[in-house]
Amino acid sequence: MKDLAGRIAVITGGGTGMGRELARQLVAEGCNVAMCDVSASALAETKRLCEVERLPQGLRITTHVADVSDEEQLLRFRDEISEQQATDKIHLLFNNAGIGGGGSMIVHGRDEWERTFNICWFGVYYGTRAFLPMLLKADRGHIVNTSSVNGFWASVGPTIPHTAYSAAKFAVKGFSEALQTDLRINAPHIKCSVVMPGHIGTGIAANTGKVQAGNESDALTEKQLRQARARLTAAGVDAAKMSDAQVEQVVRERVRRFVEEAPMTAAQAATVILDGVKADRWRILVGEDAKKIDAKVRETPEQAYDIDFFQKFAAEVGWKIAR
Ligand SMILES: NC(=O)c1ccc[n+]([C@@H]2O[C@H](COP(=O)([O-])OP(=O)(O)OC[C@H]3O[C@@H](n4cnc5c(N)ncnc54)[C@H](O)[C@@H]3O)[C@@H](O)[C@H]2O)c1
Question: Closest ligand 1 atom to the C-alpha of 200?
């Protein structure tokens, strides 16, 4: 789909990060956008940013509060779009919303594990189910599912368990790959891409805490403080001697570094994703780090979870997170 002007795009998780930048770039190309998020204030800010430039006449930007892990809410989101965008079809579906967390099967609670898995996997599955009828009605359609490098490599380093997110992102990749054949046979006017970003500078770490806690506060809950201590201890830091304020400070610093030390910004990532969509590429690796991990895991799959595999790779691409 080379020309996005006049099309209708749906974005989940449009409140911040890559979802927000996708919205801004789509609007700049004259594409109508409908986005959802769990945060009404983040959605309002994305809409404001989209409207900074003068919009083409008649272009629609609508925002909708919906949690993608809840099918009812996604169906309501779809119905609101039909009404507010006055349409029975959409052309682009970005299943982008996601959070981290739920890393360990042993240490983390089942609620947290399933919150992460349900958002990252069921968000994509329910999103596709909800909007498929509207994509089928369009002359052309494109489903863009955001997985991760954790969709083919289930690690963010040897000291951090990462089970829920990796399981969900592998599922997103498998689903998107299987859709290539299903769509080619049954709906050839619809394409599907799987997006696999490396490290992108977004607020996902802070947003994960908020979504897991179910509020929009920057303060850590008791549980999050306990988890941060455990994580520091696993990384060889004597966290027992640290005050709560010191632990919070370390977490805030990690969130800041995740954004500032990333090799790619959310806006650059959104451009790579849209270029991939326009070129009809079904696999979109985002960032040089993502391309390198992809090559390395294929080269030496048996070593992929060895400690020195991570260390060599992190040094090579300049990854400072998780060390
Ligand atoms: N940032 C990275 O390094 C990176 C790397 C690989 C993959 N990803 C993936 O990219 C996607 C976008 O992440 P990002 O980095 O832009 O993070 P982000 O936190 O900036 O944006 C994600 C947005 O999704 C929203 N969201 C979370 N849970 C939701 C739910 N249940 N329903 C609706 N909205 C919800 C958040 O409020 C947030 O606005 C995610 O799927 C993430 O897993 C990110």
Answer: 3
Instruction: Identify the weakest region by mean pLDDT among 20-29, 36-45, 89-98, 311-320.
Output: 311-320
Q: Is the pTM of this model over 0.90?
A: yes
How many angstroms is it from 95 CA to the middle of ligand 1? 10
Q: Work out the widest C-alpha separation in the chain, in whole angstroms.
A: 62
Does 96 contact ligand 1 (Cβ within 6 A)?
yes
DSSP string, 201-228: ESSHHHHHHHHHHTS--SSPPHHHHHHH
Q: What is the pLDDT of residue 321?
A: 60
Name which residue sits closest to atom 16 of ligand 1, judged by CA. Answer: 17
Q: Region 200-215: what's the mean pLDDT? A: 93
DSSP letter for 162, please.
Answer: -
Residue type for position 316: E
> What confidence tier does 216 reach under pLDDT thresholds 50, 70, 90?
confident
Q: Which atom of ligand 1 is nearest to the CA of 150?
A: 6
Which residue, judged by its Cα, is nearest atom 20 of ligand 1? 17
Protein residue closest via CA to atom 7 of ligand 1: 148
